[in-house]
Amino acid sequence: MSLLDRxxxxxxxAMKNKEKEKLSVLRMLKAAxxxxxxxxxxxxxxxxxxxxxxxxxxxxxxxSLQEFENAGRSxxxxxVKTEIEIVQSYMPTPLTEDELRELIEQTIKEVGAxxxxxxxxVMGAIMPKVKGRAxxxxxxxxxxxxxx
Length: 148
Known about the structure:
It contains seven helices and no strands. The chain is mainly α.
């Protein structure tokens, strides 16, 4: 079942259950996926492309959450937290920190990195492997630890 099919089914269920908040987020996700398909000029997006869109939407919400918390807007903080939970439910299961460390070690060996000067090579090789399953800043931090 494709992500769009899953979103459509969940939208129908949210309508039946009168879950306005969830329905709103699902419609937004579906629109973002359809806009990306139009932009790329291809109808069924690949799994990686769908993941890119979901990651982008999740990052936007996390940034908004940070801004609302800084501004003391507790009314909006709760709304955005709910949206984040809904978007995360469509993301693949995240990697644990141990799995991430192991993947980083393998990648460092693959590219033959030995110092922090090779950071770009390692990051370029590892990010496609962890796409949507790990936060880029955490990956960056762990790669720096491994290379130092």
